[in-house]
Amino acid sequence: MTSATARTRQTVQAYHQARFGGDVAAAAAQLAGTFTFQSPLIRSDDATGHLAGLPGFLQVVTGIDMISELYGESEATLVYDVHTATPVGTQRTAEHFRLRDDRIESIALIFDATRWHSIMAAAGQTEPASD
């Protein structure tokens, strides 16, 4: 493992642990000043918008099972199951990170959002949000 790959791993793991631990400040510290996030349900062009919904999301998360971690010099991919206390149950998720200067500049979250549509509609959000 090169030193750049090791730094990528350290940054992504720190973000992932902080995010699922509910530490918004520590998660934000791993993000670049110019940051974008995209998932099938949500888009954001800054760290604040991306992390704003974290406390609410974590209220329904009951656990995470890591399946795979792949690290390169400026990108990483995590595959994991998110267990939720919702009708969705367990959601298989892939998360792709791009890094610049040892900070995460973009995240693409990939999952089948079909089961989330009724939950989002009940919350009053029927289309993907954008900031």
The side-by-side strand order for the widest beta sheet comes to 2-1-6-5-4-3
> What does the largest sheet look like?
6 strands, mixed
Write down the oligomeric state. Answer: single chain
Structural class: alpha+beta
Low-confidence stretches: none
Please count the helical segments: 5
- Count the strands? 6
Word description of this protein:
About 30% of the residues lie in helices and about 40% in strands. The chain has 5 helices and 6 strands. The longest helix has 19 residues. The model has no long low-confidence stretch (mean pLDDT about 90).
Main attributes of the structure:
6 strands, alpha+beta, 6-stranded mixed beta sheet, 131 residues, 31% helix
Layout of helices and strands, plus pairs?
Blueprint: H1 3-21, H2 24-28, E1 31-38, E2 43-44, H3 47-52, H4 54-58, E3 61-71, E4 75-84, E5 90-100, E6 103-110, H5 117-122
Parallel strand pairs: 1-6
Antiparallel strand pairs: 1-2, 3-4, 4-5, 5-6
Structure summary:
By secondary structure, the protein is of the alpha+beta class. Helices cover 31% and strands 38% of the residues.
